[in-house]
Batch of 3 targets.
Target 1
Amino acid sequence: MLSFLVRRLAAMVLVLFAISVLTFSIFNVIPNGEPENRMAGRTQTPAQVEAIRREWGFDRGMVVQYATTMRKVFTGDLISYYNGSRVGEEILRGLPRTFSLAVGAALLWMALAVALGLYSAVRSGRLSGWLTGALAVIGISMPVFWVGALMNHYLGFEAGLFPNGGYVPLTEDPLAWAHHLILPWTALSILFIGVYSRVLRSSVMDTMSEDYVRTARAKGLSEGRVLVRHVLRNSLIPIVSLWGLDFGAVLGGGAILTETVFDLQGVGQYAAESIDQLDVPPVLAVTMLGAFFIVVLNTVVDVLYAVLDPRIRIGRL
């Protein structure tokens, strides 16, 4: 297990380096024109453009430009050229909001998807199984921004059951924190519940036909024990993979629409506003942050793979 962990950590470092080079190229090398002009924004002045060129090393070699960019990203030394705020501080301010949204929604969609997927697989061919499958497809088909807008309007604005957007820190009032996030959690989870339950249903149905499942039943084990200890454990491998990637993407600003609809002012909404303002430093930082979360959580998923199925530890990077 130790050698497996070492291999995965080494691969993670290499992937992060490759992503940093690719991100640098996308922002500073591939687009036509000078990068300092793009960073200076719409209301640029010649003095501002020249200052950005010297600050970022755009008048020097590519290696120096890359090193300077990565140093600014990882030390938090990025300044927004739209309002002069420090990008690192803005991301740290929005990260607890995004983290609260991501963790609550991830736990919700994972729990409901497992329950719905397992139930629809066990009841396959019956009316109840067909209905759960239909509900999953409906969930996949509904856009997050549309569901969120309906919830916010009818349950928040008109009915007054939930706050009409906004955020309360967990440390100030845990109940108000959860109350403000119930609708965002639900809106963000609906799509994932549909996708995950369909994937799990297919995986469970394939696993139930395996020889070791028939052997477990032949030994006299209860159906519940067979489903939980033999079928569900092996069927969770594709779900764990999806969960790690989706959770990392949400943490890295992937919940832009949900945050915007409910005005959470998280990392995703900050990135969306920066794109609208053509403010390059925040977009660069959020892009690297999202890539970091996805790669790290993908490594965690591989470790969970090894826990669920020890055969994966042998010869896998």
Target 2
Amino acid sequence: MIPNIIHFVFGLSRDFGGRPFSFIHYLAIKTACECNKPETIFFHYAHEPAGEWWDRAKPFLTLNQIEIPTEIFGNPLLHYAHAADIIRLKMLLEHGGVYLDMDVLTLRSFAPLLKYPSVMAYERPGGLCNAVIFAAKGSEFIRRWYDSYTSFRSKGKDEFWSEHSVEVPFQIATENPEAVHVLGQRAFFWPTYHQFWMLFGVSSKRSFLEKVAGRLMQPLVYIIIKRQAFGLHLYESIWWDRYLRDMTPENVAAMSSPFGWLFRRYSKDFK
């Protein structure tokens, strides 16, 4: 049984990777809390954020300051993202619960998923994305995944970026189907990172016909997400500058698109 505990990891770099704590990060915490009413929301960090949205989020959280791991089984961790990968697995082994990236917004209760020993979702064929991980304390699936880091490799610009975070969990799930329940892509990872016009609207640079087609599709996109998704992964490493960095309650409330329809109710807290 997976406990109703949420884990977030943030602030492993002093400059927060150029993405300081924002309204989107606040929404990740707020939606997880409101939809699940968890026993605890752990916020694992090395450098504490600051600012208005952090001040609003902090009362929901149990803070856990950590040391950043620099190696795993003697293999160096050259990127903060890889350190975050290790931290999430260790915390799930120790406590169990649900790990969410800080750009995952929750849409409905995870209660139907807590009966499984572990849960992940497809991001693409052959890949389970570690932006969302459910696990019982001491999960066999998580233990196997953690132990797989004996073969971890990283160098240069890191051509092996997704190997242990996406491909290895898929391999373990394929070999041990009883250890993990695998959800379809639409549970958390649809629209995909190159389909964000579905959430935010078609670019003004597109042709007239593309804009019309996009507008016609948006109600269907909204219905699919409402019926099938537990949450949305917003791919902030790709869409931070264009969509997420300057998002405010006011512009969410004004959006005439699936993202606005899904989350504008949270804007009412700030009127």
Target 3
Amino acid sequence: MSLLLGVDIGTSSSKGVLTTPDGTVVATAVREHSVSRPHPGWAEHDAREVWWEGFAAVTRELLPRAGDRPIAAIGVSGIGPCALPATAEGEPLRPAILYGIDTRSVAEIAELTARYGAETIVERGGSPLTTQAVGPKLAWLRRHEPRVWERTRRLFMASSYLVHELTGEYVLDHHSASQTSPLYDSRDHAWIDDWAREIAPGLELPPLAWPGEVVGTVTASAAARTGLATGVPVIAGTIDAWAEAVSVGVTRPGDVMVMYGTTMFLIEVLAERRTWPGLWGTVGVTPGTYDLAAGMATSGAVTDWLRQLTGAVYEELIEEARAAGPGAGGLVMLPYFAGERTPLFDPDARGLVLGLTLDHGRGHLYRAALEGTAFGVRHNLEAMRSAGGEAGRLVAVGGGTKGGLWTRIVSDVLGRAQTMPSVTIGACYGDALLAARAAGLSDGEDWNPPVGTVEPDRAAGKIYDELYAVYRGLYPATRDAAHALAALSRDRDAP
């Protein structure tokens, strides 16, 4: 029996999986890595060291578990949208500028929005220009690193860079392209050539393919580096959150994935294109579908910060947070520790804990962090409904689903049930499914069946309704002060 290989490059780790054509997991592997933050507001990955070497290390660990079973196809995904400038031969020229957690391009966002018009940008591309958009990151490169830009001919994201290293092909999937705002037209599914020439002159935009299309095969040099056989088909791949949605069956209109990870991310599948100024509107993973997407700048990143700050292990913090009870003893947290993405689009938003007393401990703070991200999920789902989304079925996925407390809090805050799929290992599992489909080995219908639901507690929900009102009032009440502090930090630490 042939196997499928899926590998995803995440923010803090690379993950891989080997599966059978029916979705049975044969083996998994993880390699940890870190984000480089050379200046406040910057977030970068070294593409060769983190992306390619991470892929190779994970693959070399997995292949011995395959035995004599061949790999039928390879699926890849990665964080995005990112901006990795490269030469015409595909050699990286600097570390990749990461997705919306990198906030260096705020000036360019304002300038491009003024040049083309906010409404026109959303109408053509589906999304407003924010720190998530690739176009302003390229404009930043031209302005601040002209020597790099002089040599830049190609643009990669994590998945397309892996495809290039594996196959030698230069190609980007349509979904990832729809997040290069304002370079891609989400109605015509094509590059906006006139804007691209103005924003990124000299850049050779890649040909486009759908995420599940085979775009090449493993070359001899890639085989030597990874242990893979030459000639194995490789699909175009896509951004990790969308591969993760595929992995848990979020493929029908009204389905919503709630991804619990370093950042909280939500994707709703749509039958028709919709846009909203506080959300990202993208094309889907498959032709004929569209998505509304929302993402918080931090979630698991805040809980990890608290873990490191207190020196505790997660199991201790979770039990202490559980004991703290709904409301965290009267604390409310704004989890904007790296600015905030949707629906605020404010890179200068800052974290805040309100209600602290000498009676509070680390468990209260940890619970307040979980509840603050849950309030953020509610805020984003309300924005999706305002945009015309249905939010019919919520599916929870990601490392944060372990232990049950976080998902319980989110369901209580939302007053909504969440479906729990049987496999929640992440985007690499969706990569394997897309590869299985491309190889004609699976239709994916029974790939990852649900194993249960998290039902809301109505009594806890009443407490959270009151706290949510406090949460929503905190940002406008403290925005000016947060912006002033952000400006002071920027002036002090400017490169």
